[in-house]
Design a protein that fits this description.
It contains 25 helices and 31 strands. By secondary structure, the chain is an alpha/beta fold. Among the domains are: about 90 residues, Alpha-Beta Plaits; about 190 residues, DHBP synthase (Alpha-Beta Complex), CATH 3.90.870.40; about 140 residues, Nucleotidyltransferase, domain 5. Strand 30, helix 24 and strand 31 form a beta-alpha-beta unit. Helix 15 crosses helix 19, helix 19 packs across helix 20 and helix 23 crosses helix 24. The longest helix has 27 residues. About 0% of the residues have low confidence.
Amino acid sequence: MTTEEIRVRGTVQGVGFRPTVYRLAKACGLCGDVCNDGEGVLIRASGTDASIEEFIKRLKQECPPLARINQLTRKRYQTEIVFHDFVISHSISSTVNTEITPDAATCPQCQAEIFDFYSRWYRYPFTNCTHCGPRLSIIRAIPYDRCNTSMAAFPMCAECAKEYNDVENRRFHAQPVACHVCGPKATLERADGKPITASMFSMLDDVDAVCTLLQRGEIVAIKGIGGIHLACDATNETAVQKLRQRKQRYHKPFALMARDLEIIEKYCTISDKEKELLQSPAAPIVLLQAKKLEGQGGQGSNLFSLSPPSPLSPSVAPGQNTLGFMLPYTPLHHLILKRMNRPIVLTSGNISDEPQCIDNDEARNKLSQIADYFLLHDREIVNRVDDSVVRVIGNQIQTIRRARGYAPAAIKLPPGFEQTPAILAMGGELKNTFCLLKDEQAILSQHLGDLENAATFTAYQNTLNLYLNLFEHQPEAIALDKHPEYLSTKLGQELASANQIPIYSTQHHHAHIAACMAENNLPLDSSPVLGIALDGLGYGEDGTLWGGEFLLANYCQFQRLATFKSVAMIGGEQAIYQPWRNTYAQLISAFTWEEITNKYGNLEIIKFLEEKPLLLLNQLVSKSINSPLASSVGRLFDAVAAAIGICREKCNYEGQAAMEMEALVDRNNLKNHEDNQNYPFKINILDNIYCIDPKPMWQALLDDLQQQTDLEVIATKFHIGLAKTIVNMVNDLSQQHYIKTVVLSGGVFQNCILLEQVTKYLKTSGINILTHSLTPCNDGGLSLGQAVIAAANIIK
């Protein structure tokens, strides 16, 4: 007989891993035990060599649905240990080095039970098992045991305890297990505090009543798994407009939820990959191509085809040709939507720009002027977790917001990072995440939002403290963005000073590229890549603002090889929200105003600009007063959009102008587009680096406006011209520097058209192309890049 100690690391707690070990050990005739501890799962197995080998093989093959084995190590005992059976032992508290499972969508078995009249979970909105349910949103500490979650407040009834302790049961050691008798309860309230009576509407229970309220055009605040949402009927224009006005969110697209795929398919075309994502345990919001009504459409069209009863409200996603849909991911949502034959809006329950509410009293206080009713429950949400957002581009997943369903699953680091010390990376200012790095893995927090909002910054600090305690992470170094005014940078400096640990300041765009390298498993000692980072703004090495960069980079350092021409951001931050400022700055950078008015004075955009205080604007530029230079491709998109009449006066949310211009591009025209039908850019050499100058693009675009060319054609020519210019720049640089790998990063590459076109043309060059999938290409991925840059410089 042989006895081995088998250590399993990865996502192995709270996912039914120990029952699987127990079942397989019994089947293989082994004796011993299995337990959870801070490292993961520890197995002691005694049997013949052949039976242990068979056990290991089957464990890898029959891993539970939510489990992930990152590492399995084996050690043979030299002295004999006598076991008489195989048992599951109690958890051991020890140093934390394991993963926390993300919240998981309701599994098919639990879904069936809540609609089974003979099940004791019939219509129970908090039904779960080891294959689904809350995880990150309820956990306070590791090991993941009930006493360390917000379910500690709900002692199990005898029936639940029996199933919890039955190793053959699907709910064995499912920490949130509960039922009508012993678990959390959902209750419906009126926002005005008046009582609800049964005579108000027929209903099976409070949850079922929500469906009736939504069908009547009411707005309901619904407490879910990781936060509170605001919901209304997505086909009711009055209700959707009312929600926009009350929430003060006037243009940004709303997320949608539908009962099933059949309903979504009435509004969108869905690929097999998109269906797989919608139905996955992560259950994210998936951006889908919207269908148009026959014979309608055109610029800014928001009418989507649907079999009766009615189309979506035009106010759901103004100016967009995509819709963000998700399927129900908790029993609560399944029960609400059972009778709902049309989609609902399901958007974050917050006042615009503030974090999503998670507390009942906070919701009553902040949302009573928005919602007509509240559906709340008495299980505490420990961790706020927003809905994740993804899309599929070229059959590859692109993560736009990494949160519920994905965070905080660890990202395995590439070869060379095995001995990484404990590092804390603070992230950026917008779309913030932070990152904990240690040994061979990175733990990226859920999306936390924009830190410029005071409430978000407070939530960021609270979540950071919780993670540091949860994972017992004691940083030996802190990684920051070089921007001195980022609140995350300032907080990191304070933490480093208080704990007397070193700081590693990273350049914004280098961090973008390093994040993409890391998630694509590029080894630490890899040859330099050509990183293309296109975004809104990042603090540059030369004191200007960057945002259109071609960097020769490895994990440790980079060299700037090319950039887009720097243009003044007139009025500083105002230029982000008033796109016309970027149009004017681009035009006066390319031509004299006299040249413009002489040739293009009849154009609407020129007439619009002439009504602005141009003398004052010129002084701001010439004297560099609150008009920093920026090579931002994001601002270039804004400038072009404003020139053709999109969001000219102002943007209501980040990226609005670029998103609406992307929506103008007709994919059918793309396929038939002639190669010479695109706008040209000029490439100069300035200060020993290449500089992409958009002057010829502007001349061609203004000529097209004079010829009254369709805006769809102008948008298409801009996208393809920009893509081909990027590819031409890559071809030149790759030959000069013997580059074999190109990395595409930065928020501009969320643009589906641009990413597809750049990738298509690069593939013909035979260059290896790396893009983001696990982490966002926007600033949501910055912290991973910061962390691996710091680690590389420590290890080297």
